[in-house]
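S., here's the first fold you wanted:
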Amino acid sequence: MASRADIHVHSKYSGLARLNFLRFPESVNEPRDIVKQAGLAGLNLVCVTDHNTVLGGLKAKEYEKDFPGIEVIVGEEVSTRDGEILGLFLQEDVPKGLNAIETIELIRAQDGLVISPHPFSNHVPALGLKVDQLNIDGLEVLNAGHVDGYANNKAAQHAASGRWALLGGSDSHSLNTIGCAYTEFEGNGAEEFRRQIIAKKTRPGGKEMTMSQVVAWSMGVVFAADILILRSMLGGILEVDAQNPVLNKIKEIGTSKKIVALLGSMIYFTPPVPFLVGIIGERVVKRLNSVPVHEINGNTPLLN
């Protein structure tokens, strides 16, 4: 019997992204909602892989009992000096800012698996050809968030050697895209999934996000950020979740910048602005991918 796992999902614990002086949440997904949506999307497993923390995965795992049939794998998308790395089956944080070799050693020390997400992306940190030098279990050859096509095609071509497990993940930052891309494997359960990755018997499935899904994600994030900004300006943010970095960062932003952010979001919500932004963004990414920078820089020596 075939099962499905989404190897790459973000919760509200992924922190904030930066656009000039503006800050906005990488994701606003509540861990409980991720587990629920995974079931609705037809998944059997969901890997919660927040940026530089396992907190979202640990919290999501607490809700397995509420949604029978869905298992949570605790993971982390670690920011290394060489590009981003996914660690799966973790119990504690792997620190960011190390080189790839050091990061992989720490993941292995937890008996975790090592995955290269979007390995040939030119617009988010990726390992590129350095995957050839590293002890990696699998490549994410289908990342639903990379709608430009280049990164996924290049990853699939590079993985044709059979050296790595072939994996698919949504890279979801919003509930509506969970399970958009996924990994199929024979059997069921997290431990069987681990064995199938090690045996290189997994296969990617699903598809890239549609423009409508991308726009819905961006609008949802902007709206959630606006609510938090308004609450902070009105003194309504309480320390109900001190571990959530989004709340703390928004509280640190100056009042004038908050007002500018709110005005900017009002413009963004005006049709057809979000779709125009999405189309322009896709074209920019395609232009970036016209120069295969990871083929140029991929052979840079890795430091031990």
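And the second, which I think is the more interesting of the pair:
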Amino acid sequence: MLEIRGLSAEIEGVQVLRRVDFALAEGATVALIGRNGAGKTSLLRAVMGFMKVTAGDIAFDGRPILTMPPHERPRLGIGYAPEDRRLFSSFSIEENIRLPAEVMKVPAAEIARRLDAIYQVLPELAELRPRAAAGLSGGQGKMAALARALMVGTRVILLDEPFQGLAPVLAQRYAAALRALRDSHPEIALLITESNPSLLRSFAERAYAIERGEVTEVAGGLAASSLEAAGLH
């Protein structure tokens, strides 16, 4: 479904991705593991069209998308939750969640259907939906960013460091929400970046390691021995 071939990218003349080959199949749950600054965020931003790509290609369902403007890529069914959440603080939680679908002019009935499905996966947000996003805790903000990504991510969800900064209890709640999403929407592919492999071990089927912008598949997935061999234990 999502294919990346020989992708290189740079920021202000500094190369941050180096000849990346990567594939994400329909319904797969894949972890991209790497230290801070290894290139995890850059890879997701390249998929969404926010990076200067210097070589290679990105295709979705066999269709090249590098020339597609960033604002058009969510129409393919790709949802993106950046690490910093980027919620509109003066909007309510539900207004933040609805926003991308409204910008895409998704019919009101379909937006309502998607909201119902999202609140089933993230029931605590249903209780908080009138609250202004400015009043959210870090964990609640991460949940809201996931919900917003789900509003348009009917095929693929890209989650950038979703556990970053969460207390252990909140991290467990977030992981439970991802498992609920996996159970209720098996057709959606998840690509999750993390620096701590143990947080994804219970549900990621495959793992890739990224170091200095180079990506390699980790044999055996998130098994501890494989990660040690990759230098990411």
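Why I say that: The chain has a mean pLDDT of 89. The helical segments are 40-48, 93-103, 108-121, 123-128, 138-152, 168-184, 224-229.

Talk tomorrow,
H.
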